[in-house]
Amino acid sequence: MVPAFGRDNNMDSGHTSATIFSLTHDLPSPRLPGAEAADGLDTARLALNGQTLACGIRWIGRAGARLRVEGELAEQVPAQLQVAGAPPLIGRTLWSDGAEAGLLFDAPVDILGLVARNLARASAERRRLPRIELRQTVGIHRGADVEQVRTRDISQGGVGVEARSLAPGEAVQLTFDGLRPLEGCVRWVSGETAGIVFAEELGWQILFPWLREIQQAPPAAPGGPEPDGLLQDKLALRLDLPGRVREGARWWNCRIHALTAQQVEFEARQSFPPGTGVWVALPEIGGGPVRVLTARNGRTLGEFRMPLRDTDLRTLTASRRAG
């Protein structure tokens, strides 16, 4: 289902498209009652039944689009969405409410390809990414407190997240998989969602390649039995704590599953070959440098270059009990 964007959560400075470009696998659903009209939508033409209608693109994803178009449209009618600078997108109508319509595409659409065409057509001073809808893990750090939540959308100026524990005006640090940590401030909170503005805007030259990497990543394997642990020490602490791991200048969120003074087992989206040197950040105690020993089923086993102290292990044991 497409989320409701009734609140003005555009955190960009300067003009940018109000169209939502989605990297999720959702289908376009009818707007919710009371949804506000949006200005600044990307314009397009919708060809069907021998006529061509002007329309605005409210939301577009790989499987379909939600269009602002006047008049009732019949369902299941073959149609073509003509977007400037791109071949026609072939599909059929799904639904219509007199002011908006849903379109289902016959074949998946390269959403970032459409965004790239818009970037290429814009002048350098107006070259900005629109808001991108996506579901990714982001780590929210407030001092020693770490929470891993899901994103709703992202732009150059900020990110929308699914979180209940944030307060407006709160300063946070954000860890996105594959980017450097970002400083931010909570701008608004509504129910179980929040908007966070970045302290320093992300350039499109950084954000676009990162989004393309996400788009091209293989889909996550379907859920199955819990994989066997890599750390077989019977005295190891069995944990499920949020952490993060750094290789070079890039960080990834991780879950710390098991720990001894000498070794750590964690799960992350990124795979690290044996012998790789990384830094594993652990809640409460800071962490340290680790050499990767083995990796399997998304889990990584590494060896601390300097063993943890007994006081560190006691602190982590207390964190597990508190959680």
Helix content: 10-25%
Distance between the termini: 32 Å
Q: Indicate the mean pLDDT.
A: 88
Task: Quickly count the helices.
Answer: 3
Indicate the radius of gyration in whole angstroms: 23 Å
* Main pleated sheet: 14 strands, mixed
Write the H/E string, N to C. Answer: EEEEEEEHEEEEEEEHEEEEEEH
Structural class of the helix and strand makeup? mainly beta
**Weakly predicted, low-confidence segments:** 1-14
Give the amount of beta strand, in percent.
Answer: 35-45%
**Morphology call:** elongated
- The number of E-state strands comes to 20
Overview in brief:
Helix content is 11%, strand content 42%.
Descriptive account of the structure:
The chain is mainly beta and 323 residues long. The protein has helices at 111-121, 204-216, 310-322; strands spanning 20-22, 42-48, 51-60, 64-68, 78-83, 89-96, 100-105, 132-133, 137-142, 145-154, 158-162, 171-176, 182-190, 193-198, 237-247, 250-259, 263-268, 277-281, 288-296, 299-304. Strands 1, 2, 3, 4, 5, 6, 7, 8, 9, 10, 11, 12, 13 and 14 form a 14-stranded mixed beta sheet that branches. The protein has a six-stranded antiparallel β-barrel with strand order 15-16-17-20-19-18. Strand 16 (250-259) and strand 17 (263-268) form a beta hairpin. It starts with 19 loop residues before the first strand and ends with a helix. Mean pLDDT is 88; it is low at 1-14.
